[in-house]
Design goal:
A hairpin with a 2-residue loop joins strand 1 (90-97) and strand 2. The longest helix is centred in the N-terminal third of the chain and has 37 residues, at 2-38. By secondary structure, the chain is of the alpha+beta class. 27% of the residues lie in helices and 23% in strands.
């Protein structure tokens, strides 16, 4: 009898021990799931992240890529020229891409601050040697974005300015339009990057508004159209938005 009771007590002890082990395993599993949720899964891009990249004609990275608060300080960075230096003036010049010349005109009447910036960049040779890192080829948006420091879309974060000027009320950018790329949702997120529409394009306004149209192409739009026709390198933001198949470098940019 005592032997049976001792055997029963042994079974009960093992059962209690097994229950404790099982409970501990559940706790560990729940904790591990929490860790994964906070790290691995949280690191996946969200739909909002993708749309910010796709819509950002930022610095397209003048996203039109990273977003900034609409409440960012409404001031220009040191070194940004005054709008008065270009106010009321028209500048003509050329943008040479991979040896092909694109004639351009910059309008200081419609966009004096933007015109002052790009006249200054032209005079200083800042954009020479920089790249056109982004191409879009969709039916509604066909642009080449230029002025980045490298193929990642990097730009000078210390050179930002505003306000927005000459933004289209209908959100349409006709073929040949030259507009300023900027950080999403920031009217003072303009920088040194710009984009050229090589076909009629439409870009919805964000919370800050549209994109400053600073000028237009006067000749040689076919130089950019050929780059567009070559297409987008696979692996970009989408099949029709990414680095151009043909690497593009700014040989020179002049305005007179």
């Amino acid at each position: 009898m005592e032997a049976k009771q001792e055997l029963r007590r042994g079974h009960e002890a093992r059962r209690r021990r097994d229950n404790v082990i099982a409970s501990a395993a559940v706790v560990v599993a729940i904790a591990l799931a929490g860790v994964l949720q906070g790290t691995v899964f949280a690191s996946n891009p969200t739909a909002a992240d993708y749309e910010a990249v796709k819509a950002g004609l930022s610095n397209p990275s003048a996203s039109p890529s990273a977003s900034a608060s609409p409440s960012a300080p409404a001031t220009n960075a040191p070194g940004v020229p005054a709008a008065s230096s270009a106010s009321g003036k028209t500048f003509n010049g050329s943008l040479v891409l991979n040896g092909g010349t694109v004639g351009v005109q910059v309008d200081g009447k419609a966009a004096p601050q933007a015109a002052a910036v790009f006249k200054s960049l032209a005079d200083q040779g800042t954009l020479k040697g920089r790249v056109c890192h982004r191409l879009t080829t969709s039916a509604s948006a066909s642009i080449l974005q230029c002025g980045a420091e490298d193929a990642t879309g990097k730009s000078d974060a210390s050179y930002t300015w505003g306000p927005l000027e000459n933004t289209p009320k209908d959100q349409k950018y006709p073929a040949g339009t030259i507009a300023v790329a900027r950080t999403s949702n920031n009217a003072y997120g303009n920088g040194q990057q710009f984009f050229i529409a090589y076909k009629d394009s439409t870009f919805p306004d964000d919370s800050a508004g549209g994109y400053t149209i600073v000028g237009h192409v006067t000749s040689g739009l076919d130089v950019i159209s050929k780059i567009g026709a070559a297409g987008v390198t696979p692996g970009g933001a989408s099949a029709d938005d990414g680095a151009p198949v043909t690497p593009v470098t700014i040989d020179s940019f002049t305005l007179n």
